[in-house]
Amino acid sequence: MSDTITFALPKGRIMKDSMELFARIGITCPEMSDDSRKLVFENREDRLRFMAVRATDVPTYVEYGCADIGVVGKDTLLEQGKDLYEPLDLKFGYCRLVVAEPKELQRMDDPANWSNIRVATKYPNITERYFAARGVQVELIKLYGSIELAPLVGLAERIVDLVSTGATLRENGMVEVDTIADITTRLIVNRASLKTKHQRIRKIIEGLEQVVGETVRISG
Ligand SMILES: Nc1ncnc2c1ncn2[C@@H]1O[C@H](COP(=O)(O)OP(=O)(O)OP(=O)(O)O)[C@@H](O)[C@H]1O
Ligand SMILES: O=P(O)(O)OC[C@H]1O[C@H](OP(=O)(O)OP(=O)(O)O)[C@H](O)[C@@H]1O
């Protein structure tokens, strides 16, 4: 059995910080670059392989064992609810998942009092759970980006989306109503790999743990 460790890394904003973090524990891939169209990169000498995948696809590659280890936002994990081992908060990619509305509404009231509203989001499962827990009936509109546009053109009354600096909400005349979750980037591990490649994976988790300053109990 191959003891190569395969990483699923998200293309996009998390990639650079992920590579920098791994480099701090000696995990590097000299041939990898974020402007390449190549999707799989090998570091044969160190028995490492890196795959560049869409952020939302990282959990799928790890769940099916095509990657042993993945790096992904907590938002994606909450939305997809897959059975993955999540040993470490990597403490970057800080943002918040919020409910927001156009500032003209100026309601800023409790979402539990809303009824029959349309909510646009990339996160239908999280949004459904949030409103269901408050007994509020909503119509979910699944979008794939530029969520803040939806209320401006009457597609939805509210949105559930990520906020970091707040610039996107502000520039589109929206305000936060409630925070659903604080989000950071997480390390995820395939449960079978944790057993079959235990030594190598444990070393990686412990190395990262030291770098990010968190204590982890590794099972399996
Ligand atoms: N504005 C932001 N500031 C900080 N972190 C963010 C921000 N937006 C998203 N993130 C985090 O980065 C992760 C990846 O976001 P990115 O925009 O690179 O991919 P995506 O476009 O959401 O995913 P996909 O390409 O699969 O549609 C998100 O899941 C989230 O955890
Ligand atoms: O609070 P801010 O710092 O403005 O960041 C928040 C924005 O960042 C993300 O969008 P992204 O840039 O990924 O584009 P998208 O709308 O295409 O998903 C998120 O969906 C918000 O729109």
TrEMBL record:
<keyword id="KW-0547">Nucleotide-binding</keyword>
<dbReference type="InterPro" id="IPR018198">
    <property type="entry name" value="ATP_PRibTrfase_CS"/>
</dbReference>
<comment type="function">
    <text>Catalyzes the condensation of ATP and 5-phosphoribose 1-diphosphate to form N'-(5'-phosphoribosyl)-ATP (PR-ATP). Has a crucial role in the pathway because the rate of histidine biosynthesis seems to be controlled primarily by regulation of HisG enzymatic activity.</text>
</comment>
<keyword id="KW-0368">Histidine biosynthesis</keyword>
<dbReference type="GO" id="GO:0003879">
    <property type="term" value="F:ATP phosphoribosyltransferase activity"/>
</dbReference>
<comment type="similarity">
    <text>Belongs to the ATP phosphoribosyltransferase family. Short subfamily.</text>
</comment>
<feature type="domain" description="ATP phosphoribosyltransferase catalytic">
    <location>
        <begin position="54"/>
        <end position="209"/>
    </location>
</feature>
<keyword id="KW-0028">Amino-acid biosynthesis</keyword>
<dbReference type="GO" id="GO:0000105">
    <property type="term" value="P:L-histidine biosynthetic process"/>
</dbReference>
<dbReference type="GO" id="GO:0005524">
    <property type="term" value="F:ATP binding"/>
</dbReference>
<dbReference type="Pfam" id="PF01634">
    <property type="entry name" value="HisG"/>
</dbReference>
<comment type="subunit">
    <text>Heteromultimer composed of HisG and HisZ subunits.</text>
</comment>
<dbReference type="GO" id="GO:0005737">
    <property type="term" value="C:cytoplasm"/>
</dbReference>
<dbReference type="InterPro" id="IPR024893">
    <property type="entry name" value="ATP_PRibTrfase_HisG_short"/>
</dbReference>
<comment type="pathway">
    <text>Amino-acid biosynthesis; L-histidine biosynthesis; L-histidine from 5-phospho-alpha-D-ribose 1-diphosphate: step 1/9.</text>
</comment>
<dbReference type="InterPro" id="IPR001348">
    <property type="entry name" value="ATP_PRibTrfase_HisG"/>
</dbReference>
<keyword id="KW-0067">ATP-binding</keyword>
<protein>
    <recommendedName>
        <fullName>ATP phosphoribosyltransferase</fullName>
        <ecNumber>2.4.2.17</ecNumber>
    </recommendedName>
</protein>
<dbReference type="InterPro" id="IPR013820">
    <property type="entry name" value="ATP_PRibTrfase_cat"/>
</dbReference>
<keyword id="KW-0963">Cytoplasm</keyword>
<keyword id="KW-0328">Glycosyltransferase</keyword>
<keyword id="KW-0808">Transferase</keyword>
